[in-house]
Amino acid sequence: MRERLTNWAGNIDFGARRVHRPRTFDELGEVVSAADRLRVLGSGHSFNRLADTDGDLISLAGMPRTVEISADRSTVRIDGGIRYGELATHLAAEGLAVHNMASLPHISVAGAIATATHGSGVRHGNLATAVSGLEILRADGSTTVLDRSHPDFTGAVVGLGALGVVTALTLDVVPAFELRQYVYENLPGQSLHAHLDEILSAGYSVSLFTRWTGTDIDQVWLKRAEPLTGDLFGARPADGPRHPVPGMPTVSCTEQGGVPGPWHERLPHFRMEFTPSSGEELQSEWHVPRTAALSAIEAVAGLRERVAAVLQVCEIRTIAADDLWLSPNHGRDSLALHFTWIADTDAVLPIVADLEKALAPFDARPHWGKIFTTAPADLRASYDRFADFTALVDRFDPQKTFANPYLETLLH
């Protein structure tokens, strides 16, 4: 009987014939060599069919953990199944850190990197920019090792799982650091328009949360090393812990109130030891150039009532430019507009299409693992190295072992 498997949110029933969970490298090699169609499943925190397959799925979660710090303590080599929370615990014990983390420490490192998932900060690249090396097990059983000196490297890092099984990654690390997390409420709309760059630059990481029910920003989450007092451009400090979605229990959120703490307990919005929500949600996200930030925000505001009707919360944050071929931040500092929707696909999809139309003048690039309706041709046109990526996929996987219907539509 075929195992029923869904993504984290439950909106995708995977069509895999079977799910493999190897526990050794020999078992992994046997699965790959025997497969005609295979996709790697990370933590399942995606909302479209990018990770789905008409063949087999394979999870690396049961593989041996690898956390090898280099002699000069500038990099760490990790396995392809580790999650950020696990990695953070190991690094913190060694007095080290990664430069950025996503809101959820529960997601797999390799999966987040393959889709250019990001943290936040005007000076900080997305999670994939920390990669300095990767090891890819290909369908023919060979392993390709790439580093920043290799011409294929910047194409392979954000690889959408199309090149092979990423069995190991090498990440840049930095000395461990402390941060404080502050939450401010009711940022006036006029302050947002007059001081957007200053607000977004006020911390190591800054997130703005709104339900689009009015002109004000509901919450500003600001993470920085230095203490803060008083208001923030008219926003008042919260009088206690907050959850980004009003009414949700705050116990799952990382500590607030300006209490200093280690990087891995402040950069994520949610604690590793708690499930941040039930998964009863859908997500979309678009990246626009930071130079168009206010115009893009105004474009979304033009759909305020329709968006608010199916929205749980919207997060607005920044990411620095990079050179990774399929990163939404390729070649431009970006503003990300992230939407957490109610769990109703039929109600959400028309709004997604309307948002895409409103954001099209700003060359908005959707997050690869979220819900979007952008035509494949338009997606390809948004990336000047897309044809190079397609050629890279053809070279790495000529038999299309790691393809699926979703990717085949996208790439060709």
From TrEMBL:
<dbReference type="GO" id="GO:0071949">
    <property type="term" value="F:FAD binding"/>
</dbReference>
<dbReference type="GO" id="GO:0080049">
    <property type="term" value="F:L-gulono-1,4-lactone dehydrogenase activity"/>
</dbReference>
<dbReference type="Pfam" id="PF04030">
    <property type="entry name" value="ALO"/>
</dbReference>
<feature type="domain" description="FAD-binding PCMH-type">
    <location>
        <begin position="12"/>
        <end position="176"/>
    </location>
</feature>
<dbReference type="GO" id="GO:0016020">
    <property type="term" value="C:membrane"/>
</dbReference>
<dbReference type="GO" id="GO:0003885">
    <property type="term" value="F:D-arabinono-1,4-lactone oxidase activity"/>
</dbReference>
<dbReference type="InterPro" id="IPR006094">
    <property type="entry name" value="Oxid_FAD_bind_N"/>
</dbReference>
<dbReference type="InterPro" id="IPR016171">
    <property type="entry name" value="Vanillyl_alc_oxidase_C-sub2"/>
</dbReference>
<keyword id="KW-0560">Oxidoreductase</keyword>
<dbReference type="InterPro" id="IPR016169">
    <property type="entry name" value="FAD-bd_PCMH_sub2"/>
</dbReference>
<dbReference type="Pfam" id="PF01565">
    <property type="entry name" value="FAD_binding_4"/>
</dbReference>
<dbReference type="InterPro" id="IPR007173">
    <property type="entry name" value="ALO_C"/>
</dbReference>
<dbReference type="InterPro" id="IPR016167">
    <property type="entry name" value="FAD-bd_PCMH_sub1"/>
</dbReference>
<protein>
    <submittedName>
        <fullName>Xylitol oxidase</fullName>
    </submittedName>
</protein>
<dbReference type="InterPro" id="IPR036318">
    <property type="entry name" value="FAD-bd_PCMH-like_sf"/>
</dbReference>
<dbReference type="InterPro" id="IPR016166">
    <property type="entry name" value="FAD-bd_PCMH"/>
</dbReference>
<dbReference type="InterPro" id="IPR010031">
    <property type="entry name" value="FAD_lactone_oxidase-like"/>
</dbReference>
